[in-house]
Amino acid sequence: MAGPPRSYLASLAALGCFYAFASGTAALAAQPQHAAFHVENVFAVKLPAGANKVRIWFAVPQQTNAADVTAFTVETPYPVQYDNDSWGNRVGYIEVDKPTVPEIDITEHFDLHTTETLNTLDPSKTRPLTDAERNALQRFLLPTSYVVVNPQIKTLAAQITGGETNPILAARKLYDWTLNHVSYWVEYPDRMKASEFGSTDFCLATKSGNCTDFHSLFSSLAMADGIPTRMVYGSLLKPTLDGVDVDASYHCWIEFYAPHYGWIPLDVSLADIYGKEFPLTDKNRTLVERTTATGYHGFDPSKIDYYFGNLDDRRFSWSTGRDLMMQPPQDDGPVNSLPKAYVEVDGKIYTGWTRKLTYQEAK
Predict the structure, then answer these.
(1) 317 in a domain, yes or no?
(2) DSSP per residue over 306-347, as a string?
(3) pTM, whole model, 2 decimals?
(4) Closest CA relative to residue 212, chosen from 341, 340, 322, 353
(5) Is 28 helix (H, G, I), strand (E, B) or coil?
(6) From 269's CA, which of 64, 237, 278, 305 has a CA 20 to 30 Å away?
(7) What is the extent of the structural domain holding 336?
(8) Which pLDDT belongs to residue 48?
């Protein structure tokens, strides 16, 4: 695949955005933006004939510094229990023996107040991680089923970072490389696609993918370079779907660890949408718009710096991590991720269900 357009590379050079962390973020508004929503999230599990035991684990909104969840309720005719999975995410669970209905419905309602995440990143204010820190954060350096760390990834990560040990500088090199070498499939839907599960190998081979592919590849490179990394799954509450009866889908982003800062967010997939010039067509216009959090208004290279360390306010989290183990434990192996739900029928993964997330912005 050819590299990014020259206009993209020229904009990077003009803005000095490869390493201008302090200058790039100092221009940000001093006060974060806020938003508020009423949210409905509906699961419908259509049961196969003869099902004996149905088990449903469903994502619930996570309380975070950037998202305050209130008035949370669940409507379903079955008892719901809540527990934490192996990554600490709160998860809802329903178990139905010998169901007598053709469908199990679960409806979540909640109010949400979200806050923009703003950071002014100064590499001089962090330092390389110590061995003790890496040992303490070992789980965030381990590969998963689709986020691989192999000799190819280790060699590539070393080439990109060039021996840089400062985690902010090294992560920015990996961010820029990913941005430079991968394109979001919605920009060119005629010739690009996303993987089914969010895959490092797929993204590296095709140089395309969705948010999960982008961030799987970034995670692999970061972990190979010794930077603790975790993937967050959530949803973007874009203005164009406010009050619209269409599923808002999900989105994922990254948090990496740097001493004295803690967990720093980034979203290289949205930086790609805004930071590269591509033609808007009848085939990609709606896809591009629905991929963003705040609406697509054309080429905006300032978002490249913005999405390294900052996140817009119109998003919240469903879960963190990959290869999840549930409570009570599932029967059919680790769950790749949980932005929606995971269902087993008689001990086997079952995909005969739908989810529809809708919302209205609170005035």
Answers:
(1) no
(2) HTBT-B-SSEEEEEE-SSB--SSPPSSS-BS--SSEEEEETT
(3) 0.91
(4) 322
(5) coil
(6) 64
(7) 34-113+324-361
(8) 96
